[in-house]
Amino acid sequence: xxxxxxxxxxxxxxxxxxxxxxxxxxxxxxxxxxxxxxxxxxxxxxxxxxxxxxxxxxxxxxxxxxxxxxxxxxxxxxxxxxxxxxxxxxxxxxxxxxxxxxxxxxxxxxxxxxxxxxxxxxxxxxxxxxxxxxxxxxxxxxxxxxxxxxxxxxxxxxxxxxxxxxxxxxxxxxxxxxxxxxxxxxxxxxxxxxxxxxxxxxxxxxxxxxxxxxxxxxxxxxxxxxxxxxxxxxxxxxxxxxxxxxxxxxxxxxxxxxxxxxxxxxxxxxxxxxxxxxxxxxxxxxxxxxxxxxxxxxxxxxxxxxxxxxxxxxx
Length: 315
Ligand code: GLN
What we know:
This protein is an alpha/beta fold. It has helices at residues 3-22, 37-54, 58-65, 69-83, 115-126, 141-146, 161-164, 207-213, 232-240, 251-260, 285-300, 303-311, and strands spanning 92-97, 100-101, 105-108, 111-113, 130-135, 152-153, 168-169, 174-183, 200-203, 226-229, 246-250, 264-266, 272-276, 279-280. α8 links the parallel β9 and β10. The longest helix is centred in the N-terminal third of the chain and has 20 residues, at 3-22.
């Protein structure tokens, strides 16, 4: 691996460490973690709906409906946090995303679905909020979060020091790896082979764009060699059509694009490891704490893992 790449990884790791100390969350409430993932997810979302609809006095009633004390404790802790929450629309958690990033977010008919949508819905349930998804260009998400257009950006978004200047990130809920897609018969065998003037396709405003567009001294390939597309799928289409020689993009969408387009492959050398997290306004610490609290409960009870497993196969 190149030294530049290592430097980028170090930066990303440092960023991850920073976010790590940001949110301790209300993990003490997550004691019911021995329960099966699917069961407790369903229970706790039902419980938080009931308790938010009828006020906190409903939580003991909910207790008898839910068979497990653990999940009741979890959901009432989370919905207590929700009491003091400010969101863009009352009672609604608005998520900004770019719905062309399978399996994290993509359209199924008219509906946006995927890992991030399911995680956001589980968070919203914990907080007694209804989820709404707003699809927008990836490079508009941070601005939408900052400007109070959406409550959080959840878009397979990597925690980076640059972005941390503009928004806060929740604790990380998943990891990603930047990989290189090429045609099956390509002479490009490692990321180093991209250095001799190859044309590289990326999605505008993503970390893949940032790394690739950087100067060769910094381990990039130079702005002049990078073609930027507003959707990852468009970059892949350009590769299929021979307009670019390679695409740098996150590994899970890469797998999905390679599956749905003949004649492409992913290079074995991984490019950069990253942490995904929710982007939240610097002016909304209440929401940041609540999202971190919900995430830590959803990690402890296995919900996050079961959502990831549903969309990502082990190999
Ligand atoms: N993880 C990458 C980034 O944060 C790409 C995300 C995306 O395209 N949705 O820049």
